[in-house]
Specification:
Elements lengths: L4 E5 L3 H9 L4 E5 L15 H13 L3 E6 L5 H16 L4 E4 L2 H10 L5 E3 L8 H10 L3 E3 L6 H10 L4 E8 L11 H6 L16 E8 L5 E3 L5 H14 L12 E6 L6 E4 L13 E3 L4 H7 L3 E4 L6 H20 L6 H7 L6 E2 L20
Parallel strand pairs: 1-2, 1-13, 2-3, 3-4, 4-5, 5-6, 6-7, 7-13, 12-14
Antiparallel strand pairs: 7-12, 8-9, 8-10, 10-11
Amino acid sequence: MKSPELLLPAGGFERMRAAFDFGADAVYAGQPRYSLRARNNEFVRIAKMQEAINEAHARGKKFYVASNILPHNSKLKTYLDDMVPVMEMKPDAIIMADPGLIMKVKERWPDAVIHLSVQANTTNYWGVQFWQKVGVERIILSRELSLEEIAEIRQQCPDMELEVFVHGALCIAYSGRCLLSGYFNHRDPNQGTCTNACRWDYKVHAASESDAGDAQLLSGFDFQQAKEEADASFAACGGAKRHPLADQVYLIEEANRPGQFMPIMEDEHGTYIMNSKDLRALEQIEKLVKIGVDSLKVEGRTKSIYYVARVAQTYRKAIDDAIAGRPFNPELLADLDGLANRGYTPGFLELHQTQDYQNYLHGYS
């Protein structure tokens, strides 16, 4: 088995160095204007990014530049000119999502190595084959795929590099396709300005459906008591059937918007304002290695130096164990428990009960 690349985030020099020191093969970073982390970082200055790329290459490592926004017309006017100095720095790849930007970059720099961002939501092997014909050299697969689906894509697309997220925050929507942040704060996730509205504190109020089909507030309903009763009923039936509270109509009230009630309903696919636990695919590393995934990626360009170092170290051990044929060491899980997190889940890689995916208690890590 080949050893997959371990790819860590680099929000600055020290985080990049920590990632490399503790086992990362590559890092990724981006200029705030064109990547999905809009806050300024050390690489907002081109000279700093050049210095970082040079240092990475001197260490025999790789440096990828994220340029993965889905831009509106206003950013097209400056994009290619701003990319000239970036391309001159010779990063190992550009991470991109927008088809138009990819087209223009390929026209101007035909030899540019393009990695398709997870923001493009590639979920099947026909999509992979399409991007391969366009000239993309690596696909960062959608987080919503199972191990079986990833394996099938690998079988159908043996010559395409595949990258999979294994650790970090999970969006409750397909990556970047959530409108909550834009609705509440006029901040677009696809411009790198998501406010994580899905993780805010919400109160739940019981409601009923009026004759007109609208949700109307009910009084005298104890949600916690109803939840405890429903959970007991749900557990008694083995947890396999639909939760008794799923068909209840609710109104939610955001903590900083008292008196503004928003209807929330759940169908057979779930509900749509939730707070996902963080992805931790440590126990799935061996399976991903056997599938033949080329790169294992960690989210977190805004995380601390310690976070980057600890995650790199832990996943490095898991990858090395898998390559050497050693069984998974469960003690590695504890190495990540001490980091700031919202609770952990393997996400869509494995099938679990609904409650294993969500953190119902708080929205912070």
